[in-house]
Each structure stands twice: as C-alpha cells, then as structure tokens.
Amino acid sequence: MKASELLEKSERVHFLLGNEAVVRGLYEAGVSVTATYPGTPSSEIGDLLYDVHNDLGIYFEYSVNEKVAFEVAASASSLGKRAFVFMKHVGLNVAMDSFVSLGISGVKGGFIILSADDPSLYSSQNEQDNRYLGKFAKYIVMEPSNPQELKDFVVQGFDISEATGQPVLIRSVTRVSHMRSVVRYGKVRERESTISKPDRRNTVLLPENSFRLQPLVFERLRKVVEQGFSRSFINIEGQGQDLIITSGSAYNSIKEALEMLGINATVMKIGISYPLDAEYIFSQIKNYKRIILIEEGGPFIEEQINSIIASKGLKKEIYGKISGDVPHNYEMNVDRVKGILAKIYGIPDKSTLINIDLPSRPPEFCPGCPHRASYYAAKIALRQKGWKDYISPTDIGCYTLGYYDPYGFGDMLLSMGSSIGTSNGYSIFYGKKVITFIGDSTFFHAGIPPIINAVHNNHPMIVVILDNSTTAMTGGQPTPENMGIKVKIEDVLRSIGIRNIHRTDPYDLKGTVETFKKAMDEEGVSVIISERECALEADRKKSKDELKIFQVNQDKCKLCYNCVRNFTCAAFYIKDKKVYIDPELCDGCSVCSEPLVCPFGAIEVVK
Amino acid sequence: MTSIVLAGVGGQGIITLGKILGEAAILEGKKALMTEIHGMAQRGGRISVDLRIGDYESAIIPNGSADAILGFELMETARNTFKLKSSGVIVANRRMIHPMPLIMKVQEYPEKESEEIISRFKHYYLNADEVAISVGEKRSLNMVMLGALYGVGILDVSEESLRQAIMASFSNTKVGEINVKAFEAGIATVNEEKIL
After folding, report:
1. Could you report the predicted ipTM of this complex, rounded to two decimals?
2. Which end of chain A is less enclosed by CB atoms within 10 A, N or C?
3. CB-CB: which of B31, B81, B101 is closest to A359?
4. Domain ranges of chain A
5. A573 touches chain B (CB under 8 A)
6. Fold of the CATH domain A370-539
7. A72-97 pLDDT per residue, tens
8. Residue B72: which of B110, B127, B29 has the closest Cα?
9. Closest chain A residue to B171 measured between Cα atoms?
10. Mind giving me the DSSP string for A447-506?
C-alpha cells in the first residue's frame, strides 16, 4: 500500500487489510509514537508503518522485544502524546510486567495496546485470550469485528483513553487483522504538539504512590461506564424470542448461520467487553428467557453476564462455553456457529463435510534456506562423533521447522529465548551434549539474559545462532544487526566473556561439519554463528543473470535417494522413481551439489 | 453475491489476485470481503483465500457453498473442493508442486487422485504458467488465472473494472501493462478453447 493512499483526505472507500486499516486509524487519531516487535498476525501493521511513518509524521520503531516496545509507547503517553504499541498475543506475555504497572499509573496522552490473538493457532504456540489479561491489568478492552471497526476503534479508543485516563487494549484476532474489506476513511485530527513532563507521583510506582493510586484505578474504570462509552459500543440487531450475545470476530458468523437455519433471534454485539455497563445490559436482557453466548476464545463476556444475572437474582437459560454448548477452542465460523445453534434449537444440521483424502502439505524450509544446510551439517557432525545421546532445545522462528523429519531437532520450546534458558537446566544432566538452536532476531529479543546465565553459572552447551540477518518468519523485518546503529552478535558474546565463538557459512557443508565437531570438543559455552542471508531476501536482490538452476544428471544418479531422504529440499520431486529438480522452485543455492549430499556428482548446474 | 476460493501454494501471487478482484468489485460500488489462510511457511506451504463479493459479514465461506474454486495447484485445488457447492465451477491450473512428505518418502504426486476429485464438478483446466511465460513474465501467472476466471463467466465484475484494478495495483505502468496482457491472455485461453 502506498503512503499517498493512506494520506488521502477524502472519505472515499478502500479495500484494506485489517492491519492496514489500523495504520489509517493511527493517522486519523493524530498518534505520535508507535513501536512493535514483529509477530503474526499483527506484522503487517509494522511493515506498513516502516514504509510510511515519515510521510504520516509518526515515530515508529522495531524495538528489540515487546517489553521495550511497550515502554517506548508508555513513556510517550506520560509526556501527553498519543502512543500505540502492537504485538501478537504471546508478545503481551513478554511485556506483562510494564503492562500491569501502566494500568495502575494510568495515562496522560491516549494509550492503546493492540493484541492480535490467534484462535486456531495458525502461527502460534497457544490460543490465549488476551481479554483476560486486559481485565487483569484493568485496561479498557475493545473488540473490533472487521477492518472498518479496527480503524474506528483505534480513533475512538484514544478518545476514551484520554477521557478516562486509563489505557485501552484492542483485542484483534487473526480473522480480523487478516480480513480485507471495504473501509471508509474519516477525518484526520491534529497531533498534540506540546510536551508536558510526567506526573511523577503517578509514574514512579513506589509503594507509597501505588498505595494511593490503587483505588483511583477503579474510579477511572467507572468513568468508562458513567460517561456512556461501554453502552455506546453495544449494537442490538434483529428481533427474536431469544438473545444471542457476541463480540469481535464471532459476530461475523451469526447472521449467516441464523439465515441458513431459518431462525430469528436478537443479536447483541458488544464492542467494549470490559468494563461492561451492568445496568444497561440488565435492562436489555431481562425480558429474554434464553440467552446464547458466542465469542472467540474463553467465556470472557459470558462470565460477566452470568454475574450480572446472578447479582440481579434472575433466572435464565444460558447456553455458552460454561454450559458446554459452545466449544472453548478454535475460531468460530458460519459452519461451527450453525452447528452450535442447530443443537441448541434441536434442528437437524444437514450439512455433511465431504472427506478428501490427499497427502498433507506441512510447512517446510524454502528452497535455498540456509537453515536446512545448518541442520543437515549438524546431523552429519553428530553422526561422525557418535553422539546419539544429545538434547537440542529449539526456539521460535522459521528454524523451528527443523523439528520435522528428516532433521528432527528440538526437544523443548516454550517461548522466545527459551532455547538457551532451558539449555541451562538440561546441561545439569547432559553437560556439553546440549546443542541448542536460536535465530538472530530471537537472540536479541530474549537470548541474552539466559546466555549470561550459562556463563555465570557455568552451564556447558553449544549455542547455534542461525543468523540469516532478518526476522524471516514474519516476513523479513530488520534486526539490530542490519538496521540503524548496528549491534553485532559477536561483540555481545565477547563482552560476556565467551571465548569459543565460531563463524561458519552453512552453504559450506564441509566447513560447517568441521566447525560443529570442533565446538563439540570444547569445554564450557561454545557458540556457532551459522551465517547466511535468508534465501528469500537474497533472491530479491539478485538480477536474472545471477540466478542459477540445478538439475539431476540421470546418467550419473545412482538412485541412493540421500538428497531427497536426508537433505530434502522442496525443489526435488519424484517421477517414475527418479529424482528431478523443479526449475521453477530451484533457488540455485548449490548446496545439494556438494559431495556431502550427492557423492556421485549427479546434481549439476544448468545455467 | 459470489463466493470464490483461491487455492494454491505460497509464492503463486494468490493474495495479490484476491486484492485486485476485490478492488474491481469496489470500483463498481459492490462490497467485497477477503480472508487468507496460510501457515508458518513463507514459501511452499498451503494458501487459500476466501473472497466474497456482495453483502456478506463472514469472510470465511461456509462449506459446500462456494460458487467457484480458482486453483493454482492441482492437489490444493482438489483439497478445497469441500468448500464448493455441487453446481460450482473449478478453474484449475495444471501445475503440480510436490509436498515434502512425498518427496522424503520417494513417493509420486497424486495426479490421478486429484483429477478424480476435480472431475466430480464442472471444471476447466489450463496451463497458466506456460501462458504467463508466453506473455513474457512468469510472475503474471495470477493475472492469467484471473483472466480465465473472468472468461468462464462466473464473475459479476466487468472486464473494464478488472483492467482498471490491475493497472492501479502496480505503481510501474509498464509492469501493469504486462499484467493486463496476461489477464487478456487468460481470457483468450477460454475463448480459444485452449482450456481443456
């Protein structure tokens, strides 16, 4: 998307991705400071801001991790500036400490944190529902349903945050952030041009200050209800005997499911799910006998509705996650909602899913990916040294795919940086036979404290830093090594006092195998920096003449299948038991032509 | 009201196609909704895009209700037929991209099995990659596919709007023109009955 399209003053419509609509919202709201650490499904907000922030006059940075990004935005808010920080749901766990504190401090300039949750785990380790974290830290929780609302809630969220003094959590999900639809632009506000110093009695959380602030938190939250914000974000549609309460992405499936089943029901869509306006909701629900709650994630609204109903001494038939009528897991869609409603209403759900039995297509390393070569070399080194009993914690990035056959690396993965963290513990039992893998961006994000711990507490291990000089998995965002004032991994390692630091190019299989073997003989902490640019990034820079393609010379091929069974590049394929290379997929990296992959020299360059 | 599933493998230009088709619908004052499903891989993983033109709220197409599948890769086309209604249409590219589990086990691509599944519905085949190369830009494969989809006559969007949306999506006019050429070549595959 071009900056000129985002800067348009006219209120014309655009076909925007949810994440793009957020950026337009930031522009309309007159936001000053934005920061993130990339994470799907929120990454495109950063991709776009990175390109256009100068044109929009917004400060933007890729921070080293989510906690720092949060603090960059929180400090701007304390100066009276509107500030925005965004991340994937698990990123909020990293920012948690400061996140909770800001709920107590409150804000001066409007403050929004956007959490992109991932129901159905398209690209995450869990499907945690961050509305609970918002409530826990006393944030105002907003749930947009589509790109238009994402944009509008950003603008309105800043107003509500400033009117109440409390920070806002916008909870998006994959289906909203990655939905593309018609978005109508609104007016662009003036940006706050002055700076005012922080009110220290609110922003320094000494016990004395926090003690005084605790009750104020609830006063600020009460304003959200008293000033009518909670109520104004409730829409009631349709008319029926029963009431369906919903929010966010789940709302989008209700109408079509009702139509398919031929049911009429009143639908209440909740835009601010914390704090709720209990009196208003009571007035709206008291006449319905049956209430159905369909939401994305946990029974977040359901628990609050239950408590309103109980506190009023009402008796209702309630169908939701707690009653077991709505599943707790995975994202909602029309088919699921239809199935849920059909069961509640006792209508036969006639839809049958046809069964299609085809081989799966799991994610895989791209052709030319340096990680494949690193793992292949590591396996050879382990075999040559006779190390069968080793343990290999892994981390979060494209290289996590080394878990799958034929590479089979990865014994534990909890979170960003946990590879080295858990290696500290494993080394108590495995000594030097801990071989742990981490990417360059992840190393900067959360790998430095645990490697200091390893040196300091004398935990021997081999740390393999797979350095492709980008944050590849989320689409190739920059890292501290290649943008701004550059920070070198090796300088960091040396400053900690690590002496055994090896650099290797994974495309040089023989050299990389030798490097691994050398590290395996050393005492203490050894680091191998396996360094080669991400193949996708490198390909973008290559001219057409530089692109090479390899093919299998069938006269030389002895059909040993080592290349497909153990190296397993995505560009290979099998036809009539013979191995071929798909010229459209071959990246020309040449690694498969190395004798360690093809001892018969059958893989040859063709151009 | 039209619901279309675009299915294929990462790197085939599927999302760009969806965007252009949606933009074209909006030029005509229609509503458009789109959602993409893709896993962790940057390349080689499955991708499917649900695109709906008309007054919808759910971007995800219910099972058995899509009007068409535009399939960029044979097995992924077959895999997504659970979304298609019985009277729906498939426009399928002949391209086969072999998945890793088969390669690793020295197994062949399920070409016959995929074709059998596709044959349960009204379908058209084309070699979009070849057409794109003949136009002079293999990356314009997605516009060839868009042309074929338009050519089989299930789109409620005019050729002119599509052309306009294609041009608008490329900042470089020359690249835009090549893509319009690919789009036209895609339509021609239908008119000339090159579609098999």
Report:
1. 0.95
2. C
3. B101
4. 3-227, 234-345, 370-539, 542-605
5. yes
6. Rossmann fold (3.40.50)
7. 999 999 999 999 999 999 999 999 99
8. B127
9. A2
10. IHHHHHHHHHTT--EEEEEEE-SSBTTTT-B--TTTSSS---HHHHHHHHT--EEEEE-T
